[in-house]
Each structure stands twice: as C-alpha cells, then as structure tokens.
Amino acid sequence: MSLDIRTITDADLPDWARARRTGYLLPPSVSKTELAFRRELMDLERTQGAFDDGRCVATYRSFTQRLSVPGGASVTANAVSNVSVSATHRRRGLLSRMTDRDLREAKERGDAAATLIAAEYPIYGRFGFGPAARVTEWEVDVARTGLDPRHSGPGDGGRVDYVDAAEVREHGPALYERVRAVRHGLVDRPDVWWRRNTGALPVDDGPWAEPFFVLHRSAEGSVDGLLVFTSDDRWEAKLPHQTATVLDLVAVTPAAERALWLFLLSADWITRVRTGHRAPDDILPLLLPDPRAARVVTHADFLWVRPLDVPELLRARTYPVAGSLVIDVTDRSGLAGGRFLLEAGPGGASCAPTRRPADLTLSVAELGSLLLGDESAVRLAALGRVDEETPGTLARADALLRTGRRPWCADVF
Length: 413
Known about the structure:
By secondary structure, the protein is an alpha+beta fold. The protein is built from 11 helices and 19 strands.
C-alpha cells in the first residue's frame, strides 16, 4: 500500500471531511451543509490529507490568524486546526510530515508564530509548541453568591439590552477588536466566525438553536460588552433549577464586564451558571460576596504557541520594566533557533541576533510558553527546562516577560 500526503482538491473534500470526523470519533457521515460550510472556511492550498490507496486517513489544515500580544499589538500566526489521524494509521509519521511541511511554509511566508488548541497534551511539544495560555471554567451556585437577588441594572450608568443576531453581527466585530487591543492572547474573529456563531452560516443540517445575546452600552452609548448564553428548561416541584451556560463574554472595560456578570447572576429562574472557558485570573469569583460559590470545574492548558520568528515576536510585545536579555533558543527543526539580544522597556523593544554570551538557554517550545507572560522562567528552570547561564537572569526574565493579567484565548479554532 502507498501513503501519499498532499494538498487536497475540491473533489477530495468529502473524503477528507469524513476522515476528520472518523479521527475525532464522530459519526462519519458528512452532510451537504457541513461540506458547504467547510469549503467556505478552508484554504485548500493550506489543507493536507494523507491518502492510502486513494482513501483519506489523516487530515491537517492551517490558516492565517492574528494573535494579540502584551501591549495590544497583533502578530501574524499560522493557526493549525483539524488535525486527525485514523486509528488504523497511527505511528507512521503522518502527523510529523504534515506538520513539518506546514511550519516550513509558514516560516517562508514570514509568519511570526504558529498556534493551535491541543486536544491532547503530549503531542505538540515535540514540534516546538508550548502551552502559552490556560483556561478555567467555574460553576456558580447563584443562591450561595451573597448577591442581592433584587439587583437590577448595571450600576455604572450604562445599560444592558437583549439584542438579536443581526445586531451582534453589526456591533460584535468592532467591539471584539477593541477587546483584543486591551487583552493579550485573543485571536481574531473573521466574518465567517460571526456568521457561524449567529446562525447566518449553517454548520450542519440540524435546526439553529439561537442563544441569548446581550449587549452592554456605556453611559455615553458605546457598545462596551457582549454576553452570549444558553439556558436549559429544568423545573422540579414547580421550582426553577435552570443552568445558564456562557458561550461568550467579552468586554472592553472592567465596568462592562462586571455589569454583564451581575446581569446574568441576577436573572430570574437561573440557579446555576457555567462560565465557559475564562482566564484563570478572571474577576468573576472575587466579584461575588462569597467567592466559594464559584467552583472550579475545568482548569487546563488551552492556547499553544510555536515561535517562528523570535525577533519579531519579542519586538511586538511590551515590557513593564527596562532591561536586556540574551537568550539562546534551541530548535531541532532549524526554523527559529539562534542567540538573540532583547533590549526592552516601557517605551519599546529591539531584538536581533547576537554573538554575546547567553544569559538563558531554552528550547523554542519553552519560549512559546513564556511569550505571552503566563509562564515563569524561574519555574521552568526548576524543572530543568531553562538553563540560567548568568546568575540573576531568571528573575530579570520574569520581570520583563510576565504580565499583570494572564493571557486568555476565548476561541476554539
């Protein structure tokens, strides 16, 4: 049998989509609606399939993405998605070959990094990806929060309103770009994202179950926040026991964020709230008079970053203090390794190759973990993953790289 890895054509798409579903252990049949959705979503020149005697047995695709870094700037990333290998064809190097090809093409395009959401933790470190942002999900017992159930209105001079999907498509994109400018770790949401998540672009043949959409407007009338949630319809002994599940909550200002949480927690009939994936340092628990009412149900790695252009990445972000650092980055693939001098401060940063002695030595994956400010160089050194060549450099690295708020990625892609 011959194994052929190649970019796919329109004619390959039904077989490719079936292989993706098979690899994810989903019902393998693919509807016409799903095929239409995937065709609009995908760039076939960046979509690979592995074929065994003409049958697709592994899938892989990538697309251009914008990733917000500390300080509000964005870098161009190669987003990796839809990675699958059928159980019949594991351990044959298919993923390695597809990934290597894709990352080399991304490097040639000039992408600063590659990104992905890892379904399984052990897979992607060997390709140079490191976990850069984590998520936490809470379940809130509303009765235990200590909040006044008579609460009404946002209390900040603004207002909250239920809106329809069309209004979300009108106001959501600009709002979200404002949020990305103040919160690092977020990735851009193209038009297809907004249409998919507001029911304008069907994904499958099932009926569209519209969630509740809520906008927060400031006292001046600007749209500063968006809340999207669903609610089940559960009653016991004529008493409501409804759980609200947050699908999206983004806000430009802390006031808008507080107002949207308080609105949801004061809604009639809702007795529990599932927060969805939030940053581990989300304000929600401390917003409650009794933070123990918010119970952690998920805490895990989420966004992984693979540096491809180290100077570009380190120049793009901001730094809370002034300092310099020489880092020696090892990369067994040869894509992003080298020794670099970072000179940074609140006013900006420069980064370029250097021959100066290294202060720190680390792998490209560990640099990916440090890039957005979530991980600690001191902690990685304790694990043997970062070597301190110059005494005192670990503390200096953390002072430069760590951020006051933790990075947060809201979206699966």
